[in-house]
Design goal:
Blueprint (H helix, E strand, L loop, with lengths): L3 H15 L7 H23 L9 E4 L12 E7 L6 E6 L5 E7 L11 E6 L10 E6 L7 E7 L10 E6 L12 H29 L12 E2 L7 E9 L4 E8 L5 E7 L14 E3 L10 E7 L8 E3 L5 E9 L12 E6 L3 H4 L8 H20 L1
Parallel strand pairs: 14-15
Antiparallel strand pairs: 1-2, 2-7, 3-6, 3-8, 4-5, 4-7, 9-10, 10-16, 11-14, 11-17, 12-13, 12-16
Helix pairs in contact: 1-2, 1-3, 2-3
Organism: Actinoplanes aureus
Protein name: DUF1214 domain-containing protein
């Protein structure tokens, strides 16, 4: 059967899910199966997009195809390349906070992060008055993938752009018709992508996060993988239901600053229907210029609540992008673990938010996410 290799990969993938070391109960397992479903869908899509002579941008991850602690504020795109030919990227710059490009020499694997051959944002390209631009790439030795990140700081106000890629010497021509051999290879590739995807990011989380002391966050540091204008602060939490983690960080002058929570599957929590992430634009900044986030299961009744959504354990990540200077420890977060009931005394500018106002915030997230993801 043509699909047999992919079917066998799915069976192997299920074993990876059920044997994951963090699976402690039914919720972990159910979320693992949901993660598996999204990974199956994404693997089929990515295998179909493995077309280097007639490439196109495919959505690398999204609300239903999550991987790699996906940033809720970012739309990710990628296209596969040959290293011996030239490609042209054309587009229209939207109004998002950041638009960055990264040329990789491969894909992520369980043992290594791909090398970054080039990384730049739209400040380094010529953009016409109408927002249009054109970038010529290559030939670039060892180039395998172009990754594009479109980052939103204000979900409601910022608008997406447009992207297109083509091989310079193939414009106006067409790919050959599909053959049985190509379809057989596609299902085989999809199976390999699925297994690698699951193994890679479980290993990635263990390598970069779980060795850190629990309930702490690192000072800001350049993000692994070569994003030249991005810093991040990372950590993992383990909290009782009557505990809260207060993350205090200066409101940055960077065009993008955000925080998110992730599950032990190393994917974002539900950011559509719950407030599990916040950008600086979405958060409340206190009069002293600090942003104080509250990570908790119980509703603390504050604007900057980051909902755990039943996850006792998970990941925390802060990001700054489009930076014009390096960040130091003073730019980064401070963490305090307190009782939820003590928050009115622990937060220097404690100001409760009504249940109705909080529901309005969630309704705004739902509408803005639908616009971004369909735009």
């Amino acid at each position: 059967m043509l699909t047999q290799p992919f079917a066998e990969a799915i069976q192997q993938a299920e074993k990876i899910i059920t044997s994951a070391p963090h699976v402690l109960g039914d919720q972990d397992l159910v979320e693992g199966y949901d993660y598996l479903a999204g990974s199956i869908r994404a693997s089929i899509q990515m295998a179909g997009a493995y077309e280097r002579d007639f490439p196109y941008f495919v959505r690398s991850t999204g609300p239903y195809t999550k991987m790699g602690l996906d940033n809720p504020d970012t739309l990710y795109f990628h296209a596969w390349l040959r290293d011996d030919t030239e490609y042209v990227v054309t587009g229209v710059r939207g109004t998002t906070a950041d638009l960055s490009f990264q040329l990789l020499d491969g894909d992520y694997s369980p043992v290594e992060v791909p090398g970054s051959l080039a990384a730049f944002d739209d400040r380094e390209i010529d953009i016409a008055a109408d927002g249009t631009f054109e970038i010529t790439l290559g030939p670039a030795r060892n180039a395998a993938m172009l990754v594009v990140r479109e980052v939103y700081h204000d979900w409601a106000a910022e608008r997406p752009g447009m992207l297109r890629i083509h091989r310079a010497d193939r414009l106006g021509s067409a790919p050959p018709p599909l053959t049985l051999d190509r379809m057989t290879k596609r299902y085989g590739v999809a199976g390999k992508i699925l297994i690698s995807r699951l193994r890679t990011f479980l290993a990635f989380a263990e390598r970069f996060y779980l060795g850190l002391p629990v309930n702490t966050l690192t000072p800001p540091r350049p993000t692994p993988g070569g994003l030249s204008t991005q810093y991040s602060s990372a950590g993992h939490y383990d909290l009782d239901d009557d505990q809260a983690m207060i993350v205090t960080v200066p409101a940055s002058d960077a065009p993008y600053q955000g925080i998110q929570l992730g599950s032990m599957w190393y994917v974002s929590l539900d950011y559509i229907n719950h407030q599990t992430s916040l950008t600086r634009a979405q958060a409340r900044t206190d009069p002293d210029g600090m942003i104080r986030y509250v990570v908790s299961e119980r509703n603390p009744g504050v604007t900057n609540w980051l909902e755990r959504t039943g996850h006792r354990r998970g990941y925390v990540q802060l990001r700054w992008q489009r930076l014009s200077r390096p960040l130091a420890a003073a730019d980064g977060p401070k963490v305090d673990i307190v009782a939820v009931d003590d928050l009115p005394k622990q937060l220097p500018y404690y100001e409760p938010i009504s249940a109705e106002a909080y529901r309005e915030r969630i309704a705004a997230r739902q509408a803005a996410t639908a616009y971004r993801m369909l735009g």
